[in-house]
Amino acid sequence: MRKFCAALATSLLLTGPVTAECGGGFADFVGDLKAEAQARGFASSVTTAFFDGVVQDQAVLRADRRQGVFQLPFTQFARRLISANRIEAGRANAVRWDSVFDRVEQDYGVSRHVLLAFWAFETDYGSYQGDFNTRDALVTLAHDCRRPELFRPQIFAAMELFAQGDFDPQRTTGAWAGEIGMVQMLPEDILDNGVDGDGDGQVTLKTSVPDALMSGGKMLQSLGWRAGEPWLQEVRLPEGFDMSLTGLPTVKPVTEWQALGVQGRSTPLQSGYSGSLILPEGHGGPTFFAYPNFNVFFEWNQSFTYVLTAAYFATRLGGAPIFDAGSPQPALSGEQMMLLQRKLQDRGFDVGEIDGILGSGTRAAVRAVQKELGLPVDAWPTKALLDRL
């Protein structure tokens, strides 16, 4: 699933004399969308047919508010998503679709293991792609005022696909958040990056593996993927390492990290690159080195835990060993994390939504408070830190 940041989504909006605001009555909102579609140049027949029978889907709203899995720490989350069956299926698919992956790597420079990881996590290699009506999901989420800047542009992108004959507003289904196909792409991404990988003259992401994989590869390239470069590697830190140097904001050349004693756990760090150290569960847990390509994963999904798990799974598919889980301090519960976020907010930190999820804003605030209190600056909130606050 790709989630745009608000600023990017807003920049993609087309201006026009009519703007459909979120909230209010659903029927009035749809009426405003129809007027905006006309202002954007869609034919009346296209507009009428696209919105015919549209409904507000309460199941979509419930799904949007039920994302507690992202409260899990990395180790638990990774063990939940990565199974022996998924690894075996990934390796089997790598063989089965070897020629397609060769084309992806040649044309877009994206490793097959990265695409396999997304294919696995998004739809279990295409076996479950979601059964929500895509049009209804997009209109429902655009009407909801949580993230209208993300979903409203997708409605008109879906309309463009419909006008081209590549979208059926009555029958096209997918994930609750409007993504379609085996690697779950939003309509705007399909317009920009859809590839006819099997040569049948259509881009069919739900049933054509070549179309889905080629489109996913092109999208990752468009998001900044650097051809042929690594993305993640497990490492070991020396005793007494300065934990304040960890975290994505601190970027150094590999040679400097090596001089500080950082070593690859199973293979040497790859010279010629820069990167950052990631401690998803603090200084007692696993440690990874993030190369520049790791940041592209955040353009696909903004959940730190999901991104790290997908990037790690891609390395596993490429032959990396199971990570060393170490002995991290226990994670805070969801309620404890929300209490921590409120306490950090009271101290003037911007932690975003009080949601119990250890996102980038909360991590940055935790680091600042750890430094202030003389604790290891590893961005991992513990019960001891919560008690100190």
- Alpha-carbon Rg, integer: 22 Å
C-alpha termini separation: 36 Å
SSE succession: HHHHHHHHEHHEHHEEHEEEHHHHH
How many distinct helices?
Answer: 18
The geometry reads as: globular
Strand order of the largest sheet: 4-6-7-3-5
Question: Describe the biggest sheet?
Answer: 5 strands, antiparallel
GO molecular function, one term: peptidoglycan lytic transglycosylase activity
Keywords: Signal
Pfam families: PG_binding_1, SLT_2
Protein name: Lytic murein transglycosylase
Provide a short characterization of the protein structure.
By secondary structure, the chain is mainly alpha-helical. Helices cover 48% and strands 5% of the residues. The protein has a five-stranded antiparallel β-sheet.
How would you describe this structure to a colleague?
There is one protein chain. With 389 residues, this protein is mostly helical. The chain has four domains: 1-68 and 132-175, Helicase, Ruva Protein, domain 3 (Orthogonal Bundle), CATH 1.10.8; 83-129 and 180-225, no CATH class; 232-317, no CATH class; 334-388, no CATH class. The chain has 18 helices and seven strands. The protein has helices spanning 6-11, 26-39, 44-51, 58-64, 74-81, 84-96, 98-108, 112-123, 134-143, 148-163, 187-193, 209-222, 254-259, 294-300, 304-317, 334-346, 360-373, 383-388, and strands spanning 132-133, 173-174, 232-236, 252-253, 263-264, 274-278, 288-290. The strands form two sheets. Strands 4-6-7-3-5 form a five-stranded antiparallel β-sheet. Strands 1-2 form a two-stranded antiparallel sheet. The chain is globular, with a radius of gyration of 22 Å. The model is unreliable at 3-19 (pLDDT under 50).
